[in-house]
Amino acid sequence: MNCPTCGKTINENDTFCKNCGVPLTLKQRAFATLPQTKKIRMLKISDYFLMFLISIIPIINIITFIVWAASSKTNVNKKNYASAALIFMAIAIVLVIITLLITYYILKLV
Q1: Other Cβ atoms within 10 Å of 13 Cβ, number
Q2: With 80 as the cut, is the pLDDT of residue 27 above it?
Q3: How many CB atoms neighbour CB 16 within 10 A?
Q4: What span, in angstroms and rounded, lies between the C-alpha atoms of 36 and 9?
Q5: Collapsing DSSP states into helix, strand and coil, what is residue 72?
Q6: What does the alpha-carbon distance between residue 49 and residue 109 come to, in Å, rounded to a whole number?
């Protein structure tokens, strides 16, 4: 486990950090035993600009969003954006097909 202040390795039974001297409460020692989560890189404005730009280019947007949504190396925020965009596109396509079918049957009856 690591010290919550300096990050150096400490024993579970230590009451203070041997490196920085910070006293460790029971709560801090319990927190230090938790597995460390991987830090996620924040997206820059240029990343968002690129995502929006790609989303307005037909066919390329679908291919790119599928790659981003399926890749394990893609940033989590970009992956979630791509997944949401694909779901939105699928709903839009279904609604367009339903509208076209209704219009076709209405015009066929006239």
Answers
A1: 7
A2: no
A3: 12
A4: 13
A5: coil
A6: 47
